[in-house]
Amino acid sequence: MECYEAIKRISKQTDKAILFHSATGKDSIVLLDMLTKHFAHVIPVFMYVVKDLQHVNTYIDWAQRKYNVRFIQTPHFALYSYIKSGFLGCEQNERQRLYRLQDIDTLIKQKTGTEWSFYGMKKTDSLNRRLMLGTYTDGMTNEKSRKCYPLADWNNARCLRYIEENGLIKPEKYGAEQSSGTSVNDAKYLRFLKEKHPDDLERVFEMFPHAKAILYEYEYNNQRNPTN
Fold first, then answer.
1. Which of 84, 140, 151, 210 sits CB 3.0–4.6 Å from 89 for a disulfide?
2. What is the pTM of this model?
3. Three-state DSSP class for 226?
4. How confident is the model at residue 3 (pLDDT cuts 50, 70, 90)?
5. Sign of torsion, CA 79 85 88 93?
6. DSSP E strands: which ranges in the chain?
7. Measured between alpha carbons, how far is 160 from 144 in angstroms, rounded to an integer?
């Protein structure tokens, strides 16, 4: 398969790889398992919006034990813009510097002395990702930026099958169509936390107090229209 060939090809150049890992998502669970079979040193990077959520740490702890890796945790690039604008009532700093994913990728590579970074993005995720990945020669490798997307041609069903066949931890499911996410303005995500991890919800509300209104409106509308 092309995904394995891309991983093998890069592993012949270096024994170190960075993986931008969502902690709870199916793509990241699959890709970490793949990479650890070919690289001596895999460095998972988790970008948080609210740090140290219990349900996220469960996944990070599992991965660190299973693969003997150590996660780097760093603020999500979206968090910088949230702080700059005071999004959802978070503590505002108008002078906050903004970072893009590309900036964080570069900083992590410099910090770890690692050339290649891997991502779990797939063409089926969105039209934008399909167009971006379609510009690469093999549909998954950007030699110039030293980035690779081995799961580019996979779909969600294939990822779930890999997880089942290899006995890996099941991905978290926040909503009917969402397998992972940390969007503090997503009502389904907030509802999931309320039902499954109320302590985590309180941590979200501490940092983004106006998120309470999003959850309240969602639950109110569901009471009025329970079929929605």
1. 210
2. 0.92
3. coil
4. confident
5. positive
6. 16-20, 41-48, 72-75, 117-118, 141-142, 147-148
7. 31
Q: Which amino acid is at 171?
A: P
Kindly state the helix (H) or strand (E) to which residue 200 belongs, with its residue range.
helix 198-207
Distance from C-alpha of 34 to C-alpha of 3, rounded to nearest angstrom: 10
| Type and span of the H or E element at 187 | helix 187-196
Identity of the residue numbered 130: R
The sign of the CA dihedral 3, 69, 24, 98 is negative
| Nearest-angstrom CA–CA distance, 219 and 88 | 18
d(CA 177, CA 156): 11
* Cα 21 to Cα 69: distance, rounded to the nearest angstrom: 12
- pLDDT one-digit tens code per residue, 152-198: 999 999 999 999 999 999 998 876 555 455 689 999 999 999 999 99
The Cβ of residue 28 has, within 10 Å, a number of other Cβ atoms equal to 25
pLDDT by residue (tens digit) across 32-65?
999 999 999 999 999 999 999 999 999 999 999 9
Identity of the amino acid at 218: Y
Strand segments (E) across 61-151 = 72-75, 117-118, 141-142, 147-148
Helix axis angle, 198-207 to 187-196, nearest 10°: 130
36 near 70, Cβ under 8 Å? no
